Request: fold
Amino acid sequence: MLKSPTTEEAIEKKQASSKKRSTFKLNANDKYFSLLFLGPSLLILGLFVFYPMIKTFYISMFLTNTLGKTSVFAGFSNYAELLTSPDFLNSLVVTLAYVLGVTFFTLAISLLLANLASKKLPGIGIFRTLYSVTMGVSVSVAAIFWLFIFNPSTGFFAIIANALKLTPINWLTDPSNAMWAVIITTVWMNLGFTFLILLGAIESVPQTLYEAASVEGASPRFQFFKITLPMISPTLFFVSTITIIDAFKSFGLIDLITKGGPTNATNMLVYRIYKDAFYSGNYAQASTEAIILTVIIAAFTLLQFKFLEKKVNY
Amino acid sequence: MAENNKSLPKRILTYVLLIALALVILAPFFIGIWTSFLPTMNIAKGDLFSTNLSFDNYVAAFTKTPILRYLANSFVISTLTMVAQLLFCSMSAYAFVFLKFKGRNILFGLFLVTMMLPFEAQIIPNFQTVKFLGMLDNYSVLIVPFLTSAFGTFMLRQSFKQTPAELKEASDIEGLNHFQFYWNVVLPYNKISMITLGAYSFLGAWNQYLWPMLTTFSNNSRVIQNGLRQLQSEETFNDWRMIQASAAIIVIPTIIVLFIGQHYFKSGLNEGAVK
Amino acid sequence: MSTILKNVTKQYDQDKKVLDNVSAEIQTGEFFVIVGPSGCGKSTLLRMIAGLTQISEGTIKIEDRVVNDLSPKDRNLTMVFQSYALFPFLSVWDNVAFGLKARKADKADIEKRVNDALKMVNLEELRDRKPRELSGGQRQRVALARAVASDAKICLMDEPLSNLDAQLRIKMRQEIYALQRKLGLTLIYVTHDQVEAMTMADHIMVLNDSKIQQVGTPEEIYQHPANEFVASFFGVPPINILPAQKVSEAILQVNSDFEVTLPHPIAHANVRVGIRPTDMKVVDSDELHANATIKAVEFLGNEKIVHAKMSHGGEVSVIVSSEEVFQPYQNVEITADSEFLLFDVDGKNITNKGAVTHA
Reply:
């Protein structure tokens, strides 16, 4: 069972004394209101989250026909089969590579942007706005913009390469390049949001810490690594987990840019679930994959909760 | 970081870096929007610097494609999702903070567990559910599963906890019931968090891709994200500029809204991240 | 070998000067206190010495070197901040070692200096704690240790005691004073608290309204204040200031309520008189001879403060012995001896005592 984060405990402690004073007794009135206030949410979550989760797990234990009807109980054999299938393992590796690439570049570039944009210079507000602009870009728009850039014959990169008499890179037809194309597009989309959160964190570092450090003789680089980074490390951790979770769930960009290809080079987990279920009608396998995805996401979410707990303590 | 103790060359270097990065980030917009004004002929020849600009692609996007219908669909669905999430998330958050009832902690634990379960992993049974309920290819299929969210409840609960206990006590003395306290005190007091969740849920609904792709098939209910995909697969490559123009039509209003709302969004994000 | 401020000015907007033409010399090894009410520019001045704030005009010289354009790290000084500026993610030991590591000091040297500094402020036992696990006074000590560990000979302190409670403040005051003497530091100390200034300083600089009011030793400042502001800033309760007219060559009529004898002739017909609460007398009086009514009496133990309203307007505070009995609304007669200060109508001290008044 999940332990609720310490942040809340702290707040709880803070409010505990006053809460005791106030009207927090068990009474019939509260019971009635709690049903009214929680009812709708519970109904929706029950129907569209808990039921499908259990159902998915249930299906993953069976063999299914193409209509999704369960036939023979299979225990964990679906899992065993999947985890030894080179095709699925390839998907897993591809997904991991993608997640790693996206997370690393999103964080590194956002950190650079946030650090630059935190400087107190005239006109810096303009840059802050410009750097956060990709937050307003949806999957399909991003895909269309970048597809044009990557297009092998008439794309922007190809035109530049031709103009410079270079051989254009086959962005979308070469397996490892296709992976880079998807990573670049995802990172570009992520930048705005991550940048804003990191900027907020950097700005909330007390100015006197930098003043004290500069009086003590610390160079700007030393200050960045010994003050800024440790001070924002909780937020860094937080955005990393968000980025990781989002990357594991990527679907739209894959579907729009590579459709999992070429030769499964970008056939990531969610895309695979979609194709196994809705193209091949292999519901048992898709459900098994869905459960594996859930386990991965849950692990990272737990890590994130753990972070909330640590947060106040540094 | 200390106030303007930087030398001039260092400052210039910083500005050069700032501008260079801004150009790189904005390049896809510039390229996309610029080419959307060019005739397809020029692009095919690799000629990016034509002066032969026109709005033809935009006129085509508006007249030859159902893009306006897609936009309207997306807008209605996102707005309704946002309103519903604001209402239901704030109600359940209120229950978790201000109501005392049996099993409160267990229920809250369930909400937390929900946050760990990706919707992407539940699409198979959910698809069967909405099919069974006859909601396919209808606005309802894109709204009903997202009427509430565990994340929204969690976020508002964190925020509601900051409401001073004195306000609750004063309201008790004044004889406000739970509904009055919720509506007249808690919601206005947590306005910023509500705005943040509103923006978050609107954008979340707006950017939905997989679920609408599975559950809608006609232009009557197709949302913009899938609409663009639809255009891309239907149109021949000759009309690529028109799709580019469509993308520009979509992205410009969202960016304007974002700039206006940026202040709220940023403070809200950080509040959410820190508390 | 000293720190010299010459015509230092700070200006943010065209017409608003935060500091105006400040000049002073701070001797090496002395305890120099900059004091003034909030908003007088004292913190700005300190930050300019540190290099955290740019100087608009004038020069600052440290040990014969103009430092105007030097960055803080090149000025070789240390600073203790009001908020302590401790790094929350570092232990006490690492906080103290921060500056030495930043300057890439020798490992063994860091070890020795940090340990010595912690010993000096009695924090050896807490070396592995994080700042949040410390009390206010302990955090203050960590900040001090950081300054001590540095080999810089100039230490700046910006209201270091203002976040502590009254008792702790007295204790830390003594510790800081002892440390300064022991290490022979040049300590430049900013405070708004006149008691801190009086008790610790070798020299005090009084700032008000962006300008220097006076620089001097505590005795000079208290006994020969340059003007009304300085006179009323030092002393609790503050000096009583009342208007007065010359009625003859030797007699001043104070507030139309009582007369005092002038110690020396003055040119002005209208002046203002400053009398310390200890230099006034209160006696019970009938309605006919009374020139004041008591408003309140504060019992302090060995003495009492009588607050009274003068018949012709204005209020005074008088310190009397605690045996004397006074009641609110009692009619009294208030007088003074020859111990008082004279100010012209602009507030400038015109008392002639052959005293040196700095301006």
The two ends of chain A are 24 Å apart (CA to CA). Chain A has a mean pLDDT of 82. Chain A touches chain C through 20 residues (CB under 8 Å). Residues 33 and 297 of chain A are 34 Å apart (CA to CA).
